[in-house]
Amino acid sequence: MSENFDVKLDNKSHLPEYSYIDNTWMGRYEPAYRRFLDDPERFWSEIAHELDWIKPWDKVLEWNHPYAKWFTGAKLNITCNCLDRHVLGDRRNKVALIWRAENDLEERVMTYRQLHTQVMRFANALKNLGVKKGDKVCLYMPFVPEHVVAILGCARIGAVHTIVYGGFGADALNSRIRDSKAKIVITADVSYRRGKAIMLKSIVDEAITNAPSVEKVIVLRRSNLNVELIQEKEVDFYEIMEQAENYCEPEEMDSEDPLFILYTSGTTGTPKGVVHTCGGYMVGTYYTTKYVFDMRDTDVHWCTADPGWITGHSYIVYGPLATGATVLISETVPDYPDPGIWWKIIEDIGVTIFYTAPTSIRMFMKYGEEWAKKYNLDSLRVLGSVGEPLNPEAFEWYYRNIGKSKCPIIDTWWQTETGMHMIATLVGEKMKPGFAGKPIPGIIADVVDKDGNPVEPGIGGILVIKTPWPSMMRTIHNNDERYRQYWSGAGGYYTAGDLAVKDEEGYIMIIGRADDVIIVAGHNIGTAEVESALVAQEPVAEAAVIGKPDVLKGQSIKAFVTLRVGYEPGEQLKNDLIYNVRMSLGPIAMPSEIEFVDTLPKTRSGKIMRRVLKAKEMGLDPGDISTLDE
Ligand code: PRX
């Protein structure tokens, strides 16, 4: 972790100028936070009591640093809270999902009753294929309603889903399937992006050639390409649905049984399989969806993420459905067919809560506010941001042009590992552009030095979470040692890997990562994976990648490469190396720049010093280089 540094805080703040929305469920921030501090377990148990449990818990929390168990002894099935309770209650015919195709020509609508039936049929279809509680199922799908059906179908029978973002390439998919030992892979013939079909099924074919755990591949055929299936091994999504019964009893899950594994990029080794469990994750995502977004029964919620990221898990699927919201899901990208598409959808559907990433906002700023002006955005009530710091310029643009100076901007800081929002400015509270906000009630966060001592306001330090929370990850799949590391630095607090600074009022600004994870357009890219995709290529001897500031994407990837003897640097070779990374990991992990160098800076023990490369690239002082090898 880096040493302290001074940060100039611009303490400009904002109150919503027009309507001052007051959060009605838990009340305002201060009293809610005090209520939490008075009795944390009671606080969480009151929230958990709003949900349906098959059997209530014996204890709210068992904390044995760094291991937490939440709602121990309780039995539940998360799908009962996302579906059954609405169907049995008064949301039976309420719209659960509205889907827009990427070409904006197709729309599908599903009520809670319809979604419930589809999920149960799919769950039965999985059972018919021999899938049992605890089995791992990998989803590599386009963003269509069947994706949500497949996720909840797994949860219904206690199968552990592991979703891989459909933009990843074959090698990235392969390493995740192998680490999770998935028995089933669910995919589709194609996904569409900017009008082009991407042959998902062929990527799966390649990814499973050396993944012996995979017994069956379920293929959703959505195009008219008539993709052929290999008998026995490959089955059609709707054929197996047709053969399945309508009703599926929910599997009785222990609160601490795993719900899913989601891979997140690291700086060393393979991606980390973050494990989330049923009870705590359900409570955390329900609470934050309802409180942080001030979700009401009339809301139409649109989170523009993909289910392949934690944002999609928590704030497209589980959280919003647990609150009984109408959820818009859309395959569209922000600028296709034109940069007005998202505003058009908001007008058409009447979206009230809109949650997106700073990188999209910056893209819209580039295209100009005219696109947003063409549409009526009056339905919007709450705007959210996630994935990277929302810089003050982007905040202002979002606030004025999309929120029309009446919608609060909820910047939410959290991670795959945290499962739910941790730091945010709640609806109705004073907003400070550039600051994510304060730890939400339920969370004790701080900025500390390397020994865990709080640093003064205005001084940068390590962002930590001091006490356990229900939706925290429980371990890293196959690597518990790596899990323990999260709780072993900075005085034994949970270290998030981010650097931050606090102001006098306790608002937290995220400065960036303390490690080598690069955030490109809001997506975590591990240096290790990109470097190994480069080194896997014959001409490359060694590679080091760094994140460079990028006005649109936040960061872009630059790779420094040394070549093996016999290979000459050149434009063609650069393009080949980039192309091969794209094919193996997918477009999001593609370096935008490659520089050939003779040597890479290393420590005496041989570790590449990326921060030296980064400092040099940006014309900055590399800091302490005493460990640099001559
Ligand atoms: O560096 C922080 C950044 O994204 C990291 C977590 O990435 P991931 O696990 O992929 O989850 C992204 C979606 C929750 C964090 O360690 N990050 C996330 N949200 C913010 C952020 N940085 C600044 N402000 C945010 N609101």
From TrEMBL:
Domain Acetyl-coenzyme A synthetase N-terminal per the UniProt entry, residue ranges: 29-82
GO molecular function: 3-hydroxypropionyl-CoA synthetase activity; acetate-CoA ligase activity; AMP binding; ATP binding
PROSITE patterns: AMP_BINDING
Keyword terms: ATP-binding, Ligase, Nucleotide-binding
Pfam families: ACAS_N, AMP-binding, AMP-binding_C
Top-rank EC class of the record's enzyme: ligase
Gene Ontology BP annotations: acetyl-CoA biosynthetic process from acetate; carbon fixation by 3-hydroxypropionate cycle
GO cellular component: cytosol
Keyword DNA damage: no
Coiled-coil ranges per UniProt: none
EC annotation from Swiss-Prot or TrEMBL: 6.2.1.1
N-terminal signal peptide: none
InterPro entries: Ac_CoA_lig, ACAS_N, AMP-bd_C, AMP-bd_C_sf, AMP-binding_CS, AMP-dep_synth/lig_dom, ANL_N_sf
SUPFAM superfamilies according to UniProt: Acetyl-CoA synthetase-like (SSF56801)
Domain AMP-dependent synthetase/ligase, residue spans: 91-474
Domain spans labelled AMP-binding enzyme C-terminal: 529-607
Recorded family membership: Belongs to the ATP-dependent AMP-binding enzyme family.
Name under which the protein is recorded: Acetate--CoA ligase
Primary gene name: acs
